[in-house]
Design goal:
With 568 residues, this protein is α+β, with helices and mostly antiparallel strands. The protein is built from ten helices and 36 strands. Helix 6 runs antiparallel to helix 7.
Length: 568
Amino acid sequence: MKRFLDIHSYRLGRRIGDKLLYISDKEGRPKLYQMMDGVETLLLDVDRVIGYTLDPGRRLVVVNHDEAGNERWRITVLDNVGQRLAEIGDGRSINHIGTPGETYEIPYTSNKEWGSEFGLYIYRLEDGEEEFIYGPETGLYGSGMSRDGELLYAQVFRSSSDVELLIIERETGRVVDRIGGGGDVVYLPRWRDRDSLYIVTDIGEETPYLALYRVGGGIEPIINSEWGVETYGVTSSGEIIYSLNVRGDSRLYIGEKEVEKPMGVVTYIDVDGEATISMNTVKYGESIWRLVGDTLEPILYPREIEDLWDTIVEPEIHTYQSFDGLEIDLLLYRPRNREKPHPTIINPHGGPESQSRPMYSPMIQGLVSLGYAVAQPNYRGGTGYGKTFKEMDRVEKRVDSLRDVYEGARYLIETGLVDPERLGIMGGSYGGYVTLYMVTHHPRLFKAAVSVVGIANLETFLRNTGPWRRSHREYKYGSLDRDLDTLRRLSPIHYIDRVETPLLLIHGRNDPRVPVEESIEMYRKLSEKGVETKLIIYEDEGHGVVKRRNREHYMESVAQWFTRHMPP
């Protein structure tokens, strides 16, 4: 398994003149680097970098980072040669970076004053002072300043189906316009000029489209397709480069012309000078490419992956009908030797507002190399298939999305694609919840299971998750005040007496989303019942396993668990 973990990542490539900035985990944790004339330099040495942005003139680099996975995001501001200019955040509050204008000031949102609610601020680099602009508001996350600094946008994330864009006057803090929300989403806003922004939205449509939004003047669609726009870039000449999410795979376009690309996901498009495309593909991993004419050429990818090309497999996309006739896509990674059915691991995605997509996964490729097939159903409630599909799992309808996963397992068995006597399940976050639900409701179907940062009890999860997250999580799962019976009925912890499947539980001690107590309580009750179970807690991780030394142990533990209980 280790050789698949040796494939480090290059993501979020952006150019500053002749320099290329990017995030890489080559030293074991995601950090910010730059490359110039083939020489790589570490720009910011902190525990974990999650993202960064630039001002329009590319004089400033604004970085978000945290410690030990605690998601108490701090902000470091660098100049374009890597000199530190400012630090924002105290390690306790959550501070989200905003996109600066041309005024040498940093917009950001923070919960430092209200805990569960956020305010919008501007930090002035000139004197180290800051201005409070707007708030408090629950879910006030993304922000960006117009070039002249007179207007700001702020995104209010209330749920996956309710993301509103506010336009705020700096001088007064007054909201002068707003769009989206109430069942619509607006994301990826970018100022075009003083009075207009490019946005991706699903207002009035099933799938997201690219539009020009004029403050106080409405929306003008630019790119509208049956498949959703996922990201875009607009060159100085007005040429639009964008990607569509087509059944999980990205399709890249310049205007109406499709650009050939490897199977995988376009994650970012940078158009300052040479167009730079960041992707996560099955064959090249997380990599950075340049667009020469209408041809993609790799700039940075982990060269070690070339030694695995004879082993790496791309997924087949299958479609099956669920219990009510709804069509569900499923990504199936199969070992190259397909002469007989393979032991198979069902791998439900997290979110649930997410989607399994064809990307490089060291865990999946490692398991396939051991002789397992890995199946990823894109069940209702996830993204990528439109508004209606995304809303089909709310509250009491959650059981329908769980049935989709079960029907996926039945499809694989009935078509002879898998060995029904060697079927396992593994998921993380919400996928961990699905895993726990499956082993409590279909105990004899699965021979082994792994839950990573999974939810065992929807009620205690909602009570104990970060207060800034509770309201938009209740939108999907149900309210503690109104839907307590449903939350309890759909919580795996209440069906412990049914479990027969050997279960491995993995969690980060500092997880702010799904508290570690969810796994601890599941482990305690299963141990009392006498079910074979094991609990691994990583003391320096949060919602997931990020650090290299921990990932190596994590992958080995998962492989050993499955090979012990359902050997390939």
